[in-house]
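Design review, sub-item: ligand-bound model
Attendees: FS, YL, KQ
YL presented the inputs for the copper (II) ion complex:
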Amino acid sequence: MSDRKEEFRTGVGSLMKITLAPWIWAFHFVICYGATAVWCARLTEGGDTDTLQIALIAVTVVALACIAACGIVGKRVWTRGGFGEDGEIPGIDDEESRTRFLGHATVLLSIVSAIGVVFVILPVLMIGTCR
Amino acid sequence: MRVRSRLPFALLPGLPGCTGRQSVLDTAGTDAHTLLTMFWVMLAGLVVIWVAVNGMMLVFRHLSPRRHDEALARKMIVGGGIMLPTVVISALLAWGLSVMPDQRAPGDGLRVEVIGEQWWWRVHYWPEGAEAPVVSANEGRLPGGLRTEFDLHSDKVIHSFWVPALGGKMDMFPGRRTMMSLHPDEAGVFRGQCAEFCGASHALMAFETVTMPPEDFAAWLEHEAGPAVPPEGEVAERGAVVFAEQGCGACHAVRGTAAQGQVGPDLTHVGSRHSLGAGILEPTVENFAAWIDHTGDLKPEVEMPAYDDLPGDDLTALATFLMGLK
Ligand SMILES: [Cu+2]
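KQ shared the predicted structure:
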């Protein structure tokens, strides 16, 4: 009984962790769109975006760094104890395999989030005008 | 089987539909050329990917259906299923974004304000430095070889402004301004069409776009800015009287006369337009008469009353008068 509880708690912790990278992506998205809207509607004359671009590049670098950190943590969980070196298939339905799976999912979600962040910043960089 | 193998030939007569004055495949402007290039590149890429995917399916399922190396399979999934799409989509996105500013590049002086109405277009020309616009309707005229800015908005509902042969489309919103610019490089008459469903007569909300050499355009604009020419001949003069008697001037303006209404299209030079009723009819005396006589049959829910109790003579006179407004 107490064993099960322990397992459950680990699960919820990692479950929260795997959503971290997508959350960063979501924040980055909101910041980019919000900042661009306010900048273009209120803060600039003639549609130039230089300052906005520099600020959002900084935000993007921070976001990508945080996502990379999530990915590295996930990778550690995934490969803890030397995964797959002797071609061993991890167990099914035990705590270790579950934790590994969550680590694996964290890595994949970090990759998707990183791509998402790049796709969000691309228009700001390439269009370069409010028009 | 027989029917099936003949199907592609049955589609052949449709091919000429790809050319003509309202086709993205038959371009006459810089922006449209760019979009067409993108279309062909994407179509070619699509064909390659389709052949590759189906080819692999054929090879692995039918030509060599044995057990394959797992490492190779993994590489193909990660490489072909994850990395390749990411790279291809990123490249397409970057390319698409890089041409977007060009489609909204500042113009060379002329600005055309177009306001979407149900179901026609107010067109105001603002030459460089103008304080008041040259008011027209239901037709766009553009100088060739120059970039013209379009300042778009709408009266009540969302419309979309699109001349496929010249460039991309842009939505028009009530209470908000959007802009685009076009750079025609060929003289001609091209069809534009409202491209956002806007009510009963959405499909009947079109317009002609005439691209012309800059000198010709300047001369045309000067004439368009002037008042209407006086009616010539007895029938046309009678038409002008009917126009006044029937109160058409409450909705329509004919500059230089008492008619100053702003509800409907400006008719000052309606006889010189390439179409009647926002792109739906040839401008002939018969069609002008038909339009006035049973407007609602030609355009469902149109916001102009039908004058179906006018005697035939008066109709003809009105139509002749309007045709004469060159
Ligand atoms: Cu429409």
